[in-house]
From TrEMBL:
InterPro entries: NuoE-like (IPR002023), NuoE_dom (IPR042128), NuoE_N (IPR041921), Thioredoxin-like_sf (IPR036249). Residues 1-23, 181-222 are annotated as: Disordered. Belongs to the complex I 24 kDa subunit family. Keywords: 2Fe-2S, Iron, Iron-sulfur, Metal-binding, NAD, Translocase. Its cofactor is [2Fe-2S] cluster. Pfam families: 2Fe-2S_thioredx. It comes from the Bacteria. It comes from Streptomyces avermitilis. Residues 192-207 have a biased composition (Low complexity). This is NADH-quinone oxidoreductase subunit E. SUPFAM superfamilies: Thioredoxin-like. [2Fe-2S] cluster binds at residues 104, 109, 145, 149. It catalyses: a quinone + NADH + 5 H(+)(in) = a quinol + NAD(+) + 4 H(+)(out). The keyword rRNA-binding does not apply.
C-alpha cells in the first residue's frame, strides 16, 4: 500500500522559509491588497517590487514571513524573492523606527547642505547611519539621489518629500516626529502615522521581540 505525499506530510509546492504565517485577518487583507497590485501588471511577477513594499509597510521591515507571502501569491521560489529583497536598499531587513528619515547626501544635495544636515541629525538624535532612536520613533539614514535635485537639500520621511531643508528645519522636523506632532511634506500625501500591531501577532523570527511598529500602508513608491 502506498501513501500520497500529502498523507506523508510532504509538500510538493515551493520550498517554504521557516517563518510563522500572518494572522488570518492580516493575511486576508494583504491578499486583497496584493491582488489589486498584481492586476496592474501583464506579468504577475512584475508586481514583486510593490508587493515587497506592501509587506514592509505591514511590519516595518521585510521579514521571512513577508517574503514567503510574496512567493506564495506570485508563485515564485523564496530564493527569487530573497534575491530581490536583499538587492535593493529600500527594503529593510531588520526592524526600524516608526519614521524612516532619509537625508540625501548625493552630489548636489551634499553641496547644498545635505552632508551638514546628516551630520547634525546624527548628533541631535544620538544615532549613526541606519540606527534607530531609543524611543523607537526615528531611524536615520543617508540616501542617494531621489530625483528632487531642484529642491536640494531634500529630506524624506517614509517616502514623502521635505524640500529645501536646513540644519535647523531638519532638527525641528525630527523633534516633531518624535513628539507625535503633525508634519506636512512639501508635496504629496501627509506622512502616515505609526500603528501598533495586533496582539495576535507572533513573535518575530528575526528579532525575537515581536514585529516593529508599522507605518500605515499606502501605495508604495513607483
Amino acid at each position: 500500500m502506498t501513501t500520497s505525499s500529502s498523507e506523508q506530510g510532504v509538500s510538493l509546492g515551493m520550498p517554504r522559509l521557516p517563518a510563522p504565517d500572518y494572522p488570518d485577518d492580516v493575511r486576508a487583507r494583504l491578499e486583497r491588497d496584493g491582488r489589486e497590485i498584481i492586476a496592474r501588471y501583464p506579468d504577475s511577477r512584475s508586481a514583486l517590487l510593490p508587493l515587497l513594499h506592501l509587506v514592509q509597510a505591514e511590519e516595518g521591515h521585510v521579514t521571512r514571513t513577508g517574503m514567503q507571502f510574496c512567493a506564495d501569491i506570485l508563485g515564485l521560489t523564496t530564493a527569487e524573492v530573497t534575491a530581490v529583497a536583499t538587492f535593493y536598499t529600500m527594503y529593510r531587513r531588520r526592524p526600524s523606527g516608526d519614521y524612516q528619515v532619509g537625508v540625501c547626501t548625493n552630489t548636489l544635495c551634499a553641496v547644498m547642505g545635505g552632508d551638514a544636515i546628516f551630520s547634525a541629525l546624527q548628533d541631535h538624535l544620538g544615532v549613526g547611519n541606519g540606527e534607530t532612536t531609543d524611543d523607537g520613533k526615528v531611524t536615520l539614514e543617508h540616501i542617494e539621489c531621489n530625483a528632487a535635485c531642484d529642491f536640494a537639500p531634500v529630506v524624506m520621511v517614509n517616502w514623502e518629500f521635505f524640500d529645501n531643508q536646513t540644519v535647523a528645519s531638519a532638527k525641528r522636523l525630527v523633534d516633531d516626529l518624535r513628539a507625535g506632532a503633525p508634519v506636512e511634506p512639501t508635496r504629496g500625501a501627509p506622512c502616515a502615522r505609526s500603528r501598533t500591531p495586533p496582539a495576535s501577532w507572533p513573535a518575530s523570527p528575526t528579532s525575537g521581540t515581536g514585529p516593529s511598529r508599522r507605518a500605515a500602508a499606502r501605495d508604495p513608491p513607483r
